[in-house]
Description:
The protein folds into 3 domains: about 5-120, Probable tRNA modification gtpase trme, domain 1 (Gyrase A, domain 2); about 145-210 and about 380-430, tRNA modification GTPase MnmE domain 2 (Four Helix Bundle (Hemerythrin (Met), subunit A)); about 215-295 and about 300-365, P-loop containing nucleotide triphosphate hydrolases (Rossmann fold). Helix content is about 45%, strand content about 15%. It has 15 helices and 12 strands. The strands form 2 sheets. The protein has a 6-stranded mixed β-sheet. A hairpin with a 2-residue loop joins strand 3 (about 45-55) and strand 4. The longest helix has 30 residues, at about 185-215. The chain is flat, with a radius of gyration of 29 Å. Residues about 175-185 and about 240-255 have low confidence and may be disordered.
Amino acid sequence: MEDTIVAISTTTGIGAISIVRLSGEDAIEITNKIFSKNLSDAKSHTIHYGYIKNGNEKIDEVLVSIMRAPKTFTREDVIEINCHGGIATTNKVLELLLDNGARLAEPGEFTKRAFLNGRIDLLEAEATMDLISSKTETARKISINTLTGETSNLIKKLRSQLVEIISNIEVNIDYPEYEDIEVLTNKKILPQIKIFKRDLEEIIKKSEDSKVVKEGIKVSIIGRPNVGKSSLLNSLLEEEKAIVTSIPGTTRDIVEGTIIIGGIMLNIQDTAGIRKTNDIVEKIGVEKSLSTIDASDLIIFILNNNEKLSNEEKEILENIKDKKKIVVVNKVDLENKLDKNMLDDYIEISVKENIGIDKIKDRIKKLFNLGEIKNSDLTYLSNARSISLLHKALNSIKESEEEIKINSPIDIVELSLRDAWDNLGQIIGEVYTDELLDELFSRFCLGK
């Protein structure tokens, strides 16, 4: 991190302003080479008016912000050049900075430097990008809680509880001759482990709810051709997103749209009608429809009230029996030919007559506790990496319980507890690998 990096921090295009950001030991010196004023003696956190110049040629009229280490985002000297928005002007300023010694930043490198320099932890680094990409108000609240360190404190508290148990074990192992030390047995530490496991399980549950808030719910509408899948999608989205005709096989690929219910984003996709077909293109669409079942958080399976249950539909009902699902019987305005006794639970609707659509939305809220999630404490983890590490920590705690039950030596129990402690450390970046950082920050946008 000895070199000075530069990137455009605003979206490329026409706008009122654009910002070019530098960070590193030579940020001020490099800026001096192209700015009409010398910033060497300028005070930190001040703004300076002037021109970006290429020799005697004026490139742009700008405001330059100077922030000196360590009171900056990266804990390095940081310069932000506020240019007039525009592709040509912004790129020219960037080009001049590169020509004068700066290096183009990698995606997320400013945030990576903030983490490596101890300005933020790994959870806060991830929350930076989550805040940028938040699509709902609830997701924004989760991101800002994490960014301000509240979620990190939750993990630090867990680690503190765990390290207290581990340190007591180590004292007993290392100094067994000390009479004033309480002798720890498996029986004595088991209640502490049980309390810790309960707390961890509660955090996992609420974190998985938070993940739903941040990423939304992936919903797939499946069924035979002409049961009303595309019509239902259009009705839920309140727009004509999918083509609707009476011709079977009209939808041959996945059509997507998003809505917000209870403050949570639903990513809804209409799929090709599932049936046996010799049409190559339609057959590919049917295969993609079947593959969405495992990849979706919720399946809306539509049946036609005016038709008998087919063998394909019976197979689908079997395949989705353990999934979160809503079985919908459409076209209730037509004659009933469907044997509903074969269905455990279903909602009757008529998309054509706009009957029962709100019942589907209410069922989604109930299935995912959307009202409870929206009003709950949002100081929890919300990304797959962190939640996976929580589960690993929980598995290690469960292993320690099993080892106690079979009366394993206490130092063996300690190894499982240490695994849990390390997994929690990986969440906030107390433990990390270079490969993890490279992979994580590569997802960030340039200039952040």
